[in-house]
Amino acid sequence: MDIKLLNQVEKESIGERQPLPEKYLRLSDDEMDARIAAAKKTLGERVVILGHHYQRDEVIKFADFTGDSLKLSREAANRHEAEFIVFCGVHFMAESADILRQPHQKVVLPDLAAGCSMADMAAPDQLEMAWRELEQMGIRTAPVENGKQGVVPVTYINSSAAIKAFVGAHGGIVCTSTNAAAVMKWAWERGDKLLMLPDQHLGRNTGWKMGVPLDEMIVWDPNEMWGGVTAPQVEKAKLILWKGHCSVHTRFTTAQVDVFRKQYPAGKVIAHPECTLDVVQASDDSGSTEYIINAVRNSPSGTTWAVATEVHLVNRLREEFSPDKTIVTLDPFGCLCSTMFRVSPNHLLWILEGLVEGQVHNHITVPEDQKRDAKLALDRMLAVRS
């Protein structure tokens, strides 16, 4: 994938997503870098910039902290001295930061068009309907005296604040790809079944690694009556998977694994758990973005890796460890998160210079009723030891 070409195309259409003032549309890279650095220096400790691993290089180089969703959620909760949290990621991440922030802090998302298609696959009204239908199928949705809850909701952090709030209000918890197994163990200690949303693949891969048979997992389709399943199927299931997915990670295939192994017989494949089960099973290892980074970093000199995750992270690993290790993307065309890519240096500059001038653009606020219940679910996650 030609990232430089994509950057050039993006620059030519940057004003078509979120309108930017004219003075931010045609700037050289050097000028933007200098002005971003100057604004950041002026703001000092009043601002902290968080950058997700999938963010483009031109932006993440200005981040004070980089990481996956769990790491950045914890940083957002701990940066007490910062007045502004600028989250270079996508909308659900900024919402989570707003839920966890201190009262004096404001959370900003550089481009409001930076969303997540997976998060959009679980709508609050769909979850409310699914919950009612589970009750009508005879599944307990509330704890009983001296007993477990019939079903505990678990939502991936890649979900809206409204979904997190529902989960928190119904005895549930949030997870990330880093702590999914620990969170699911926590939930099974409190319930007979888990409703895992919105990514079916993270749930299936984690459950499979934990020893849950595939015939005790079912997929709940929110666009079908009764989720497209029967009451006996629900009764048998230990894990109810919401029908959602990541459009980046589901592009990886076992055919790509086969091609890599022919080209690099001694090479290893490592996949993100948002990939499909067959790709994870065909790989040598799997884990979150932080896990992938550490696995590559701690591998012996001369190791060859094919990495099945977003291309910016893969390219960053290649640059960091070349020539000591060979690192390629499993997909030869490169899988790019197009919504994460929307956070551009232009947007970051606009945000920071606005803060210098006393203007807060793209302030992310979660309604107080949602914040209260969503914080329950996030706090439960942050208390679970991975």
With helices defined by DSSP (H or I, 4 residues minimum), what is the helix count? 16
Write the CATH fold name of the largest domain.
Rossmann fold
Distance between the termini: 34 Å
Q: Whole-number radius of gyration? A: 21 Å
Would you summarize the structure shown here?
With 386 residues, the protein is α/β, with parallel strands linked by helices.
Plain-language structure description:
With 386 residues, the protein is an alpha/beta fold. The protein folds into three domains: 3-115 and 339-368, Rossmann fold, CATH 3.40.50; 119-246, Rossmann fold (3-Layer(aba) Sandwich); 249-329, Rossmann fold (3-Layer(aba) Sandwich), CATH 3.40.50. The chain has helices at residues 3-12, 29-43, 57-60, 69-78, 91-100, 124-136, 161-169, 180-188, 200-209, 231-236, 254-263, 277-282, 289-297, 311-321, 345-356, 368-383; strands at 47-52, 65-67, 84-88, 106-108, 149-156, 173-175, 191-197, 217-220, 239-242, 268-271, 285-286, 304-308, 326-329, 363-364. The strands form three sheets. The chain has a five-stranded mixed β-sheet with strand order 2-1-3-4-14. A five-stranded parallel β-sheet has the order 6-5-7-9-8, with helices on both faces. α12 links the parallel β10 (268-271) and β11 (285-286). α4 (69-78) runs parallel beside α5 (91-100) and α7 packs across α16 (368-383). The radius of gyration is 21 Å and the shape is globular.
